[in-house]
Amino acid sequence: VEVEVEIEIEIEIEIEIEVEIEVEIEVEIEVEIEVEIEVEIKIKLLLLVVVVVVSCCCCCLVIVVSCCCC
Domain of 25? Predict the structure, then answer.
């Protein structure tokens, strides 16, 4: 008995991967206007407090501690 076995295996694998990623991010933030408004409000509040304290202390120059709680 003669058995001849011939096995030929040819494997060809070609993989081509092309990845193109384009990301464009445009961010425009305008914060200057809001910040200026907050600063103006704080300055106005401080001025009001200063005016109140000065007027209070001017009313009672003798007893400053009890009047203004400085």
Answer: 1-69
